[in-house]
Structure formats: C-alpha cells, structure tokens
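Handoff note, outgoing to incoming analyst
You'll be picking up this chain. Sequence as last confirmed:
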Amino acid sequence: MGIKIIHTTCHTQFGGLEKRIFNEACWMAQKGHEIIIVAPRNTPLYDKSKAKGFLTHDAAFKRTSLARDFFSLRALFKKAKPQVLNTHGNEDSKIALSAAVGMGIPLRILSRHISAHVGLSLHNTLLYNRLCDYVFTTADYTTRRLIQTLGIPKERIQTLSSGIIPPKGLIEKDQARENLAGEFGLDPRTRFVGFVGRVSHDKGVDLILRAFHRVASQIPHHLAVIGTGTGEYLETLRTLARDLDIESRVHFTGFREEVWPYYRALDCKMLASRDINGIPFEGIPQSVLEAMYTRCPVIGSMSGGIPDIIRHGDTGLLFRADDEADLVEKLLQTLDEGAADRVEKAFRMVNTHHTIDAMGNKILAVYQDFLGHPESTFHRPSE
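Most recent structure output, in case you need it:
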C-alpha cells in the first residue's frame, strides 16, 4: 500500500536542496507512493512538480503570510490525511510542523540540509524534539552537532546525504574536452580544471580564481566555472580575473541544465566552500558526488560535510578552508601525480552509497519502520 507524503520548502531557487526534494519525490512516486509538494508559487520546484503531475500547494512561507499559510496547511492536512510530513527549510518547518499539531500525521520529519549551527533555545528544542518525530541531516557533522546541542536521541536522527541520479551514459573524456574547448572557441587540445555548482562567495569561487592565478604559469590548463550566481558576484569574479591577468584563461558558462559532460571535461573539480563567521554551512555537496561518479578527480575544503565523502588521499584531496596556498598545493599534486586510484575508489563509493536508489531505500526503511511502530515516536505536545 502506498504512503502519502507531503514535502514543504520555503526556498525559491533550484539548488541542491530543491533537487533533493524533487528527485526523492520522483523516486517515491515510481515506487507507488503519493506525493504532495508545498512551495511558493512560480518557483522552479513548484513548477517542475506541477508539470510532473504531483499535487502542488502554494504557500509563501513569509512573515506577511504566516497566518494564511498556517490555516491553509491545516486544511490541506485535514483533507489529504498524509502519513508523512517532511519539512526542508527554516520558515516552512516552523509553520508546517506547528500546523501539523493535532492533525494525526503519524510521521513528521524535519530535514536539515546545511551544517550551520542550530543554537540551544526553547524554540529549537520544541521544534526538533517535540514537533517532529525524526530528523534527517545530510552530513555527519550536522548530526553530531544537533545531538550535542539539542540532545536529540540518536535513534531519532539520521544522516542521509542526497542521492544522485546516474546518467544513462557518459561522453568520452576526450570528446567532452573538445566540446568544452569549442564552446569557448579554444584549441581542441585545451585542458581544463574547474568548478561546477552555485557560483557564490560561500562556495569559495573567488579563492579558486586566486589559486589558479598562482599556478597558471606552471600548468597549461584553463579554468572553467560552470554555473551561475548573482550578477554582483559574477562581476566581482570577472573583475578579479582581469586584475590577476588571467582573463583569457578563465571562462564562465552560466547556468547549464545538463552538467555531466562538464565534469567529464575537467581534469580536476574544486570546491572551496568556506565557513561563514566560523560556522560551516556545507552539507554533502551533490556536485562532488556527481564529479566522483564521472571519475573526475576532486579537491574540497575541510568544511561541513565535505570530509564525509572526500576522504583525504583515498577518494580525493582536502585542503584547509580559505587557505589559498594549500589549495594550490593540492591542485598541483592532483595534476602532477594523477589520481587514478582515488577516482576509482570515489566512483565505487558513490555508486554503492550515494545514488538515488541508495538514498530512497534508506528513507523508505525509516518510513516503514516508524509507521509500523507508532509507539516509538517522540512524546508530542498535547493533541
């Protein structure tokens, strides 16, 4: 018998968090379960979910719409009678989990996708220990912090990194390089290192440009930045490339829906995520998992959940966050020594533990176990 599942999010972009919701929903639907998506109207997730045929419900999750969203969710819960409610953002978790009180939803899950610290407060204790039954995180770092800070019982929290959807096929690496060189109007023999993902300060793309500048005279490679970000930050990066006199060897593609060929074109994918005010934000980055699946060597900073999947010297190389010199050293090591053993180990790890099937089966096991043992739920507020 299928399970009726409601996912909520207040986020309006289509990054890793939203992809996780959509991919998980599609996987569950294929297994015969019923999906309802609650998100702000006219956002990518809302539109994609509607086009996919999922029941969609509009909620802005803003201060100005708090009361309206609360009561519209109460009405939705009463009508739909879901077995599972899974919230994914700060604002929607507060509103949806509060609205779910007394509605008889057997399993209420709060997903924490980033590693930013959750402080000890009465509000957070209520949210994580009483209003929800289970907590999903995407990184062991986050799981440990939540257990330590809020005292969440270990049996009610689990690390479940996002699972990638493997492509049906991968282009040959030589052809991928030629295609990328052609996109930039370069010699077909051009080699590339680069970044794939959301182009932002917290992802450390400016640090990658500065590190590339330091090694540019020692390597023949060009730097490809695959993805998009705010206009202001992109202009900052273009200005930085001009100031460092590497403008002719740094290339920006903008947003690309299909990223698999770009990983295949790179001799190294770098992720330089930095801590914000001393606090990591990165969970398990899907871009690193995707690069690993394509057998692209990876380098990542020691921040948040990145060390969960980049085991230094085994599945990739790690460098100290915001340490430009250390990134330079690891990049040269990767290009000089090669990384054949590391890429094979990384591929096997992702193929075994981090695909959509692996993630979906773990989540489904939680659903089935919990729904089959309702007496094991947290003590809830009076309902």
